Structures
1.
Amino acid sequence: MVKQASLLSQLQAIVGADGVRRDDELSNFAVDGLTPQAAVAPSSYEQVAEVLRYAHTEGLAVIPRGGGTHMHIGNVPGRYDIGLSLLRLDQVVEHEPADLTVTCQAGITLDRLQRHLGQHGQLVPLDPAWGEETTIGGILAANASGPSRHAYGAPRDFTIGLKVVTADGRITKAGGRVVKNVAGYDLCKLYIGSLGTLGVIVEAGFKLAPTPKVERTVIATFDTPGQACAFAADLQHRRLSLRAVQLLNATAASAVGLAQQGLCALVLDLAGTPQAVERSRREIGELAQDAAADLRDEENAAMAWQSRMRPGSAEEPYLLCKAATLPTHLPALIESLETVAGPPHILALPTVGVLYASWPRLEDAEAAIGRLRTAVTALDGSLVLERCPLDIKPRLDVFGDPPPSFDLMRRVKEQFDPKGVLSPGRQVGRL
């Protein structure tokens, strides 16, 4: 084990005195109750590489981070020596409006990138929560997506290139800065969602979309999630100008004032040209009338439920799960989750087959988690515990039982990070 004084001296020689975080800032880098010996904020890719070369030589564990909004995702780290902040790598590297592409550094926040692109009538189709804090690198590392996944897909679908620093300190590239990248393996898809266990993303390139000319939100209320999911499926088949389709169960819809007690809410975000949005709104109205659903326009249908999941908020959930299954199984999955562990707040993407369920307090969380996994598995789904009590988290694998591909995943980890330098223990099977 390297002594802290020697560690700080070596890190200061690499990143400079202004790049080493003070001792009183180390608590900001804590992950699941573990605090590093030191934390650094490099200002160049070369400094990131040098930090990792030093950590690799000394066998020190490094956990990269951006805005910290996704650090609750993943297993408890096996060990943790150096916190690596990417917030000083926050520039737009290249933007080609005519080609609808952008390349940016990993530490730039989503909101700042969108403001830059908005000046040119463009956007990167990412909209996870807390865009003012979450960084591009953090979004990719966690494979985080938001409601617009309905129209644009997940981050893997429009990421065209990455620059990644490996565990032993090599600066590498995957993909490129143009849309048509056809040579070699698509390593971008491997790095995205790896939680920083295979490499540190320092730069990313994306395909862009034009900013919609008009945006409009309507809310339809239903007696049951099954009715809402059927309505959403009907809308999807009609190819309307829908950017997002979100379903809140009765508990969540009532809590944020989107529906009366006992009703669930389907939030429909329309976006596109004025003519397309108007036609879509008219057709949705006709379908809602046929389905006997109440429909209303909403000026600001901000998802207040997101505040309940925000770290440190008064309504931060005791337990937060992300489940995925076939869209056709989603109504049954919602029904199961509402009965096995008490009434949760549920936000679902019915056309995608993904939902988030949160509970403010559970009597026996560990037993409830077991029942939740059983319910999801019965519907051929998967369950990830995105947030759970720290007193039980070390005893669990938040991703559940390792998948059949786990041996391949283990061998990939051994090839990319043989010394276990990067975020050890945080991935599936505590890789």
Note: Residues 307-314 have pLDDT under 50 and may be disordered.
2.
Amino acid sequence: MSKRATENTLSKVNKLLNISDSYQAPERIMQILKDESKRKEIFFNFLELFEYDLSYEWFYKYFQDEHADRKNQKQDFTPKSVSCLLSDILNTQPHKDTYRIIEEPAAGTGSTIIAHWYKSMRQCRFIWNFSPDDYLYKLTELSNKTIPFLLFNLMIRGMNAIVFHGNSLTNEIKDVFWIYNESNNPMGFSDLYICPHSERIEKMFKIKFI
């Protein structure tokens, strides 16, 4: 993509989010995701902007240029080519009579997970034969700025996931998000549930809320 095309896309993303500058995007996206009626409208607008191509992570260039903290956190994100390679290595078929759990300890904005999801879906002859309930993604991401983009990417694709916002090494967690496609609709969106900071949730996932 040319520099001019990239800048044009960044401008369109900011316009859809109704923000004046890209630094406002993470907070704005989180607000949208918590508003069920608003997020559906935004999801459809983004689908139209990116021509309904869900095969790749739309925000890679946007986030890499505008939000990645390379200086302090050495933060870079997985390019599409590497994500596709990893999905080719990983078996995408669900286990017989049960769902398949896919874990990633540093999920970023979701590039690798999206590549796996898309390959899994493409293995079905028809899209309506794909069952989102066959897969559960358990993802952890530390960055405050990254989490909203990751949740957005999962929800607009109708995926099922448990997302831990925190440190995958120490299991110190700020929040736990449950992303679920209640209707198991391969062409539908997922809903968002923010788990309470309770002892029950800590024991269930073997984490510590901070």
Note: The CA atoms of residues 64 and 71 lie 13 Å apart.
